[in-house]
Design brief:
The structure holds two protein chains of two kinds. Chain A has strands spanning about 5, 10-15, 20-25, 30-40, 45-50, 55-60, 60-65, 70-75, 85-95, 105, 110-115. By secondary structure, chain A is mainly β. In chain B, strand 5 and strand 6 (about 55) form a beta hairpin. The model of chain B has no long low-confidence stretch (mean pLDDT about 90). The chains are: A mainly beta, B mainly beta. The interface of A and B includes residues 4, 36, 100 and 105 of A.
Chain lengths: ~120, ~120
């Protein structure tokens, strides 16, 4: 049973517009969430994170929103650029309990930003 | 470089052979993680080291898989008697510390393993 779900395998956006990538989770113990970006033949690169005590975190063009009651988070990229084209993974972790630190990943959403 | 490095970058092996994958974490990072990504799937957690000890081996898919870490640094993931379903990209990540969670993990480029 998937604990972190990214229901859209792909997303296509025009350059300059907003990209919105969505992620849902089922485990209420998750209290820290991360987004990673992955180019082909490279390892994932950390992008932005959010703690469950916040509902928004912003870093330049990237903003992550967390809705704990809905167990939903989203990554907004604005304005989108062609270089943002990559696979984006949502990940979650629980800071308490035996599996401290390991991340549970979604299957990823492939973002294509068209010029 | 200062990032996580992994070797080899690609490995093709025959079914039944053993393979060893290596990970050099970022200097000073005490926590080290192994994941794998099969085709079309997300990243699957395998094992986590804090220093040289592995408090969480829950993700290892079978007893053919083992990992060790020495000197709080380099780690090797060993797969014995490889099977075709072991074919995947094996990713290593490190972080400053996993005790309280919330630490970002930094990934290496991965080792692409193909079992023929």
């Amino acid at each position: 049973d998937q604990q972190v779900k990214q229901n859209s395998p792909s997303l296509s956006v025009q350059e300059g517009r907003i990209s919105i990538l969505n992620c849902d989770y089922t485990n209420s113990m998750f209290d820290y969430f991360l987004w990673y970006k992955k180019y082909p033949a490279e390892g994932p690169t950390f992008l932005i994170s959010i703690s469950s005590i916040k509902d928004k975190n912003e870093d330049g063009r990237f903003t992550v929103f967390l809705n704990k009651s809905a167990k939903h988070l989203s990554l907004h990229i604005v304005p989108s650029q062609p270089g943002d084209s990559a696979v984006y993974f949502c990940a979650a972790t629980a800071s308490l309990g035996g599996s401290q630190g390991n991340l549970i990943f979604g299957k990823g959403t492939k973002l294509s930003v068209k010029p | 470089g200062a990032g996580v490095s992994q070797s080899p970058s690609n490995k093709v092996t025959e079914k039944g052979k053993d393979v060893e994958l290596r990970c050099d974490p970022i200097s000073g990072h005490t926590a080290l993680y192994w994941y794998r990504q099969s085709l079309g799937q997300g990243l699957e957690f395998l094992i986590y080291f804090q220093g040289n000890s592995a408090p969480d081996k829950s993700g290892l898919p079978s007893d053919r898989f083992s990992a060790e870490r020495t000197g709080g640094s380099v780690s090797t993931l060993t797969i014995q008697r490889t099977q075709q379903e072991d074919s995947a990209v094996y990713l290593c990540a490190s972080s400053l510390g996993g005790l309280a969670g919330g630490y970002e993990q930094y990934f290496g480029p991965g080792t692409r393993l193909t079992v023929t």
